[in-house]
């Protein structure tokens, strides 16, 4: 005997299909939590980003420095909240007229660290957010990643790998340099002001200034 579908059953099936659509669409959006850090207030007037971030595609930015321009492709799919945060800070001109306070060039670590307003490790945006790591991250030449002070303490700090970084996979990878590695090479060639514990870890001998990120 052939079943007859009632109007109520058909309506219920259509409703279930309608509910399923947004769940599929949500894969393109990530929810981010930006937690205020009252003990470490914002170094510049800045608003935390909105809680919803795009989680697909890439976006190109240019880091303008006194040495030249560094073009970077940011990967929203890999680190939606970190990319969302960097773009928000860049639009608010948080990075304008700041310096890259730390340069390392050892057998283990070769990076230029930027994003702090006052000094190395000092002067963030007044909030923090979680890591976006899988535990399988590597950091070859050209990698751009978030700096942090421990698990889930991301803010404004980031680093660019100019050689390689043999470090644990605990740093969110934002993207990669697509053009401008020669700028990094010139910065390294100018040398490092030796730090208190490591002559290959200190401030760049010739200051590196970020004019803006666009």
Report on the architecture of this protein.
Helices cover 19% and strands 33% of the residues. Strand 7 and strand 8 (109-114) form a beta hairpin. The strands form 3 sheets. Strands 6-15-4-5-12-10-11-8-7-14-13 form an 11-stranded antiparallel beta sheet, with helices on one face. It has a two-stranded antiparallel sheet with strand order 1-3. By secondary structure, the chain is α+β, with helices and mostly antiparallel strands. The protein has helices at 7-25, 80-91, 181-189, and strands at 29-31, 35-36, 52-54, 58-65, 68-75, 98-100, 102-104, 109-114, 127-128, 143-146, 158-165, 173-179, 192-194, 201-204, 208-213. The chain has 3 helices and 15 strands. The chain starts with 6 loop residues before the first helix and ends with a strand. Mean pLDDT is 90; it is low at 1-26.
Helix/strand class: alpha+beta
How do the strands of the widest beta sheet line up side by side? 6-15-4-5-12-10-11-8-7-14-13
- Report, as a whole number of angstroms, the end-to-end distance: 68 Å
Order of helices and strands: HEEEEEHEEEEEEEHEEE
Poorly predicted ranges? 1-26
β-sheet strand percentage: 25-35%
Major sheet attributes: 11 strands, antiparallel
Q: What is the helix tally?
A: 3
Form type: globular
Helix content: 10-25%
What is the arithmetic mean of pLDDT? 90
**How many individual β-strands?**
15
- Estimated radius of gyration: 22 Å
């Amino acid at each position: 005997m052939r079943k007859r579908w009632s109007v109520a059953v058909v309506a219920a099936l259509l409703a279930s299909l309608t509910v399923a659509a947004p769940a599929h669409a949500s894969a393109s959006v990530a929810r981010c939590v930006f937690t205020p850090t009252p003990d470490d207030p914002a170094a510049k007037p800045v608003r935390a980003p909105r809680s919803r971030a795009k989680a697909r595609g890439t976006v190109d930015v240019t880091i303008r420095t006194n040495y030249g321009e560094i073009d970077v492709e940011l990967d929203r799919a890999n680190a939606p909240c970190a990319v969302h945060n960097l773009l928000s800070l860049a639009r608010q001109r948080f990075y304008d007229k700041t310096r890259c306070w730390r340069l390392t060039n050892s057998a283990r670590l070769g990076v230029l660290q930027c994003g702090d307003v006052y000094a190395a490790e000092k002067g963030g945006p007044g909030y923090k957010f979680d890591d976006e790591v899988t535990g399988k991250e590597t950091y070859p030449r050209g990698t751009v990643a978030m700096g942090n002070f421990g698990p889930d303490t991301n803010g404004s700090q980031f680093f660019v790998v100019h050689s390689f970084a043999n470090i644990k996979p605990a740093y969110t990878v934002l993207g990669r340099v697509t053009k401008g590695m020669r700028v990094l090479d010139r910065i390294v060639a100018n040398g490092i002001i030796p730090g208190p514990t490591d002559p290959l870890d200190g401030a760049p001998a010739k200051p590196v200034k970020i004019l803006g990120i666009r």
